[in-house]
Design a protein that fits this description.
878 residues, mainly alpha, two-stranded antiparallel sheet, 72% helix, globular
């Protein structure tokens, strides 16, 4: 009863919520770690809005607020306004942007609640912060278990403890674990040094600081290292100045007492001790596995900065897009950066290849929240966030020298330390995209601007008006909760579908490789036994018995093979079912669409379920698997990688011609079904670009067009006497050849280099040229060579700039050029052979010279044989 009277029910409820939020998730459902936490946040505060709505019984309420609340509200409004551009440019993504915009509005409204409810009583703030500290300690202990044992309290076995990524606890990424630790360490320091703290609280806080700083160092987040010590310096300077300005005898006696000095000395010793332990081989850094000083040195790494700069500039490019001037005012739309980043990075790389060809990464965030806000919400959102940032700095300077209460002064300066970490980390990462980091930072900011630390603005609102506000936000909360439930369901269904998808390949491996190998071994044994020369009837009987055993074993494996074939087909059907459920829950969850696309052409299973006689129904998209495939894109075409707005393409005319010609021959219809299934995959992959821009899809689409072209060639040989069929096939071949070229050009446009990070991309130009050569019978040898030379010129440029940063060795391309040269010579195309040799030696001359210098400088390089092979062919062609 005493606790209830001391704490209002809503304060107690929020305290419990702060305690459990970091751990509220179903481990088996986790894909993105924060998705379930966002859902729980929305549900909890929607319920709170409902409770507040019925507890408003006064005539008037005095609401505390600051200019920072207004700035934050303006950002919430900017997020909503940005939806205008989402609807204009890419309405297919609107559902997700809408969800996030409304979710931000809830977070903004919660900031007012935190300021007004916790800001009424300093004790409420203290107790809530101690709850946050408890969560920090639990996450810290969990992080150490991750790092030392590869084990997690909530997830169980968690991966290789030697890998940095294993330290992700319930937050999901070492960078954001360290951010939360960085926010919580100053809170721990407060309870270690506060006048109000009991001995138990002080001891717990000291232990928590040790654990959390240990984890922070293990996480190796460079911007956290930097901001942690900068925040420490800000705290030390301003706490000292403000304390001296407002000192009194009681406070001076306290800081001279053991209650203050012992914890302070212990904190200094902990930080110093762990810094030393993390710069020498010790048990604390797993024998030197992590060296903090080296990670600090990496802050100056040019490659790291170039990589980050590319991601940052993509956000700026979105903001200043000359084709979309409205972006400058309201942005391209909240959370649209992942959709358009690849497209904008292509432009940036083209303008500055030396700096950025090697810097490409698969960025789904700008890794700078300020610039991402600029690109997504324009000047409206960016100015709002800048005003909030500088508003908080202004509040700090206005209040810090006027706080006379020791505990409040200590806490306020420690808030500055925590928020310095958040502010700086947000310039290199995205900690404010996920919980519990959002919740802790929101709480700290909201109470820091409350009346406990200085004067606030106040407004008197009638009960009726306030109820209307709560009704609006309750409705928004219900809507957001519904959308968050569906987003969570989309991820759960995706995980289920992906597990089944992975099983298909595993089962196919058993069917195609493992069992056939065993059967071959059995057949070999049977053959040997049958060829064995028998000398007596007893021996014959024994051999016959062995053969029978082997035959029985073979039958057993053949039955097992059929079982696995059935299992693979069942997994195929389940995977398709759950990918579709995922997209139904959230059509903007493009990753499900990406894998669904590959199922639409997964042989033999797709062909097993298609009715060849009703192929036109599939072409007309009358089945559920086509529910998320676009017929036509309606929006800003320049933001998409499409050659035209038409997405859906079919071979319906050819199907109808051949069905009539062959009287529905099953083999012909199966061949057509296979072609259309490949086209289905292409169309689904293209549809996904409205929400999921995957680099591998560009290359895959191009190759699928080539496969269809080859299949059309095969059909043409059988029906070369039917003029109508030949004309239709030729029309289709032209389309698929054009699409092959278009999508492969796009492939090397969006990622012209980058094989330092993606080694499989080093062969992309060679692959393109080899495939192009296979079209010589269709477009003629001269055009083929011209096309190959265009590709070679692009590769030479990429190799040159990649060589300057990492490596650029076109040895495989030159092996192809050598073969092509001799092929042309032997087929009477000497002029084309000479042309090829002259042009490639000209294009790659700088690459050749650069590689020679590199080999002279590093004669024992691991790339020596590759460079020498390139050099030999180059000099031969020269």
């Amino acid at each position: 009863m005493n606790v209830r009277s001391k704490y209002p029910a809503d304060i107690m409820a929020m305290g419990v919520f702060f305690l459990v939020l970091p751990f509220l998730m179903v481990p088996s459902w986790v894909y993105e770690y924060s998705t379930q936490k966002h859902l729980v946040f929305a549900l909890f505060y929607t319920a709170m809005f409902f409770v507040y709505l019925f507890k408003l019984n006064k005539e008037k309420y005095e609401i505390s607020y600051s200019l920072n609340h207004i700035y934050f509200s303006l950002f919430g409004l900017a997020s909503v306004f940005s939806l205008i551009n989402v609807f204009i440019q890419n309405k297919y993504y609107f559902r997700y942007s809408f969800e996030v915009a409304l979710y931000i509005s809830i977070i903004v409204f919660v900031s007012y609640i935190l300021t007004n409810r916790f800001g009424k009583d300093f004790k409420f703030i203290e107790d809530a912060l101690f709850i946050f500290l408890i969560t920090g300690f639990i996450i810290g202990v969990d992080g150490l278990l991750n790092k030392f044992f590869g084990y997690d309290i909530f997830f169980g076995k968690y991966g290789d403890p030697s890998q940095r990524i294993t330290l992700r606890t319930t937050i999901g990424n070492p960078n954001f674990v360290s951010d939360y630790m960085g926010q919580m360490i100053p809170i721990g320091i407060y309870f270690a040094l506060s006048k109000n703290s009991s001995l138990l609280k002080r001891v717990f806080s000291i232990i928590s600081i040790f654990v959390m700083f240990w984890v922070l160092l293990f996480a190796q987040t460079r911007s956290i290292y930097l901001s942690f010590f900068l925040g420490m310096a800000i705290f030390a300077i301003f706490f000292s100045i403000s304390f001296l300005k407002n000192k009194n005898d009681e406070d001076i006696n306290y800081i001279k007492s053991k209650k203050f000095l012992i914890p302070m000395i212990l904190i200094i010793l902990i930080i110093s001790f762990l810094l030393i332990m993390f710069n020498i081989p010790s048990p604390f850094n797993k024998g030197g596995e992590v060296v903090a000083a080296k990670r600090f040195e990496a802050i100056t790494s040019v490659s790291s900065w170039d990589e980050r700069t590319l991601s940052w500039l993509a956000a700026v490019e979105q903001w200043k897009d000359p084709n979309h001037l409205l972006n400058r005012f309201i942005g391209g739309g909240i959370v649209t950066y992942p959709v358009y980043a690849v497209r904008y990075m292509a432009d940036i790389q083209a303008r500055n290849p030396e700096k950025f060809y090697y810097a490409w990464n698969n960025f789904k965030r700008a890794h700078n929240d300020y610039l991402q806000v600029l690109g997504e919400t324009g000047l409206f959102g960016f100015i709002s966030i800048m005003l909030l940032l500088f508003g908080l700095i202004t509040v700090f300077f206005k209040r810090v020298f006027n706080i006379k209460d020791f505990n409040k002064l200590l806490m306020f300066n420690l808030f500055a330390w925590s928020l310095t970490i958040v502010a700086i980390h947000s310039a290199t990462e995205f900690p404010m995209h996920l919980h519990p980091n959002i919740m802790s930072a929101l709480f700290i900011i909201s109470v820091a601007v409350s009346e406990q630390f200085g004067e606030t603005k106040k407004v008197s609102i009638s009960s009726k008006t306030l109820k209307s506000v709560f009704v609006v936000f309750f409705i928004i909360g219900i809507l957001v909760s519904f959308l968050k439930i569906n987003s969570t369901a989309a991820e759960i269904y995706f995980k289920t579908a992906n597990a089944e998808y992975m099983k298909i390949d595993a089962y196919q491996n058993v069917v195609k490789n493992q069992i056939p190998n065993i059967i071959n071994q059995i057949d070999t044994q049977i053959s040997k036994l049958k060829n064995y020369k028998v000398s007596n009837p007893l021996e014959l009987q024994k051999i016959s018995s062995e053969i029978q055993k082997l035959e029985d074993e073979k039958k057993k494996y053949l039955n097992t093979k059929r079982e696995y074939e059935n299992k693979a087909f069942e997994s195929y059907k389940k995977a398709k079912e759950y990918f579709l459920k995922s997209l139904k829950a959230n059509p903007a969850f493009g990753k499900s669409g990406f894998y669904l696309a590959q199922l639409l052409a997964k042989t033999p299973y797709r062909l097993m379920e298609i009715d060849y006689n009703k192929l036109t129904d599939y072409m007309d998209m009358k089945y559920p698997e086509y529910d998320f495939m676009l017929k036509k894109f309606e929006g800003a075409l320049d933001l998409m990688p499409y050659s035209s707005s038409q997405i859906r393409f079919t071979i319906k005319n050819l199907y109808l011609l051949l069905k009539e010609k062959t009287n529905g021959n099953p083999e012909v219809l199966q061949a057509l079904a296979y072609i259309q299934s490949l086209q289905d995959e292409i169309d689904q992959l293209k549809s996904n670009y409205t929400s999921f821009n995957e680099k591998n899809a560009y290359r895959l689409i191009s190759k699928l067009n080539v496969i269809i072209f080859q299949n059309l060639n095969n059909l043409e040989r059988y029906f070369n006497e039917d003029k109508n069929i030949v004309e239709e096939i030729e029309k289709l071949k032209k389309h698929y050849y054009t699409q092959f070229v278009y999508w492969y050009d796009k492939t090397i446009e969006i990622l012209p280099g980058g094989w330092n990070r993606f080694p499989e991309w080093e062969d992309v130009y060679t692959e393109y040229m080899k495939i192009m050569f296979n079209f010589n019978g269709y477009i003629g040898m001269e055009k083929t060579i011209n096309n190959i030379l265009k590709i070679a010129e692009k590769e030479a440029k990429a190799d040159y700039y990649m060589m300057k940063k990492t490596r650029g060795i076109p040895d495989k391309s030159f092996a192809f050029f050598e073969d092509l040269y001799f092929y042309l010579k032997s087929n009477g195309n000497s002029e084309l052979a000479i042309k090829l040799a002259e042009h490639v030696t000209k294009f790659y001359s700088e690459v050749y010279n650069y590689n020679l210098l590199y080999l002279e400088r590093y004669p024992d390089t691991r790339y020596k044989s590759r460079i020498e092979n390139f050099k030999r062919v180059y000099e031969f062609l020269k």
